Amino acid sequence: MSVFLRQFWSFLKVRKKWWLGPIIILLLLLGLLLITTSSSPLAPFIYTLF
Fold this sequence. Notes:
single chain
């Protein structure tokens, strides 16, 4: 995993694609939210937001 992160960081630095960082972080957080709430009683309320 750290090799991937290191290569991704160097890609962002070399290609000057800084706008990709916040998008990927937001997508990861959204995925984590959906995974953690899929088996909880809050799931119907979270899914109505999307």
